[in-house]
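Exercise 7. Given the components listed, write out the predicted structure of the assembled complex. Treat all entries as one system.
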Amino acid sequence: MANKLLEVKNLKQYFGPSNNPIKAVDGISFDVYEGETLGLVGESGCGKSTTGRSIIRLYDITDGEILFKGKNIHAGKSRKELKQFNREMQMIFQDPYASLNPRMTAGEIIAEGFDIHGLYKNKQERRNRIGELLEAVGLNREHANRYAHEFSGGQRQRIGIARALSLDPSFIIADEPISALDVSIQAQVVNLLKKLQKERNLTYLFIAHDLSMVKYISDRIAVMYRGKIVELGSADEIYNHPIHPYTKSLLSAVPLPDPLTERKRQRIPYNHEETTEEMKVHEVLPNHFVYGSESQIRKWKK
Amino acid sequence: MKKKLLEVNNLQVNFKTYAGVVKAVRGVSFDLYEGETLAIVGESGSGKSVTSNAIMKLIPQPPGIYAGGEILFDGRDIVPLTEKEMSKVRGNEIAMIFQDPMTALNPTMRVGKQITEVILKHNKNVSSAEAKERAIKLLELVGIPMPEKRFRQYPHEFSGGMRQRVVIAIALAADPKLLIADEPTTALDVTIQAQILELMKDIQKKRNTSIIFITHDLGVVANVADRVAVMYAGQIVEYGTVNDIFYNPRHPYTWGLLGSMPDLKSNEKEELRTIPGSPPDLIHPPKGDAFAARNEFALAIDYEMEPPMFKVSDTHYAKTWLLHPDAPQIPIPDAIQKRIQGYLEEAENNGK
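Answer.
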């Protein structure tokens, strides 16, 4: 088995007043292995984006522990350590229109990272590196001098990806990187992400609500509901043998491009059930985890 | 035979901009029968929203120009109608459901008032008490629990899915014959999307409403549509029943759209088919077939002459030179053909 790159242990992220907090993320644990893609799915408001943002230190976490390459990322750090950490972990954002500075050229946007880290002293080297990155994401070297508004949505997302790659990270958090794009462009970006992963041995945390795309790109999938991970397992396992009723309900709602099945489709509604029993994560099958109480798991497995 | 409700003939809509005239809709023709759902699919900029706004006469003039064609609603051309005449058609005859339920409602007005406003405006002889009663019935129809209480609430007290139900209730308030839904579920989660789609189908059955459903999600199309029109660069490139389009697609652009969706049912991880490049600039539409530059099966003639609509069957048409009798025979790409085969076999097995 590959090494654990990231370990999240009992992560909690609360917002608002401490006597009545909004529990955006409420005690989740998972590992991400080197070279894999972990998909994180759920409906809006389930805490999936918050999880990603907590991992990359955009929020100070309420409780729990996040270990990256064995080191706690939220522990006190010197500036130097922080910089090193920032180079290792990067993010791709959802909206390619809002996430690029309209006053900067594509080249400046990509180079900002290595200017901050002082990687290239020599102008020639710096320009070469920008060119290499642009080519890696399927753009031309000449695009470096253009501004964001001169690119289409798909091209902008490529610039966002080039920026994320500029510091040679090992781990990339992609927060709904394709949901703002057109169908045909989505496929282009997903193929690019897969290609880059192979070439550079990248590890992805892929956050999305489009289940068919998540299944396609992920090795393993975690399903989130109300701040908790309710089910986690390999992509095929989750899709073919879901156990948690919420996962089943979510899967039954995905429309397929197949009119004959669509017409007969029966949605499975999900009713949240409160129980007084102790809730915890059970390993129902090897590497297939479900959150619930003992009796619930027994019922669901039937 | 069902009654034809809407007939659009060779509709052309242009927009004047500083850069030049954008030819957003370039000769679109289709028809719609009573109680039927037509889905218009395409990428952003393909002209699908402009087409639907044109039917509602919501194109601002200027900069918009109705450059040609006619829109026959119940046999009457609505293009030359004045704004005053048109206001009688809107709501009463044709109503629209907008994409974003967050911005389609007035945040400073109680939800109930927003519905009764429409009822009172379109029925001069209804008292306000009657209007309220009807509004509550509508809220009930669209599946909002405790409608009496909800009637007095403001939009911010509703969730996204509930708000979209209110938007649908408003659209239904004057009992229109035609409902135009412009990406009504795009902003919603899949589970909520499924509920809204069920609701629309349910209402259609009860009231025999015709629906034009605009979307880019082929899964949604498969779920709701009777017939499908695929739009590209301001034109309909393929047109047929939902089964024609999904099980026997003929246009390479439709192949591209179907191929770029991963297949939830297969466990294979082959590379997704993509459509290379991006859509053409509609200020200077390319000569010949607008899709040629992105089409891996493009023929020499594609760069010279625009293809006509070729007939595949009585219900199925596609605008590509590949269907010309002299064109080389190009089969549906393997990956898509395999998937279709899988779907059909599964359907057959389930039928037994």
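Discussion: Chain A has a mean pLDDT of 88. Chain A has one domain: 4-301.
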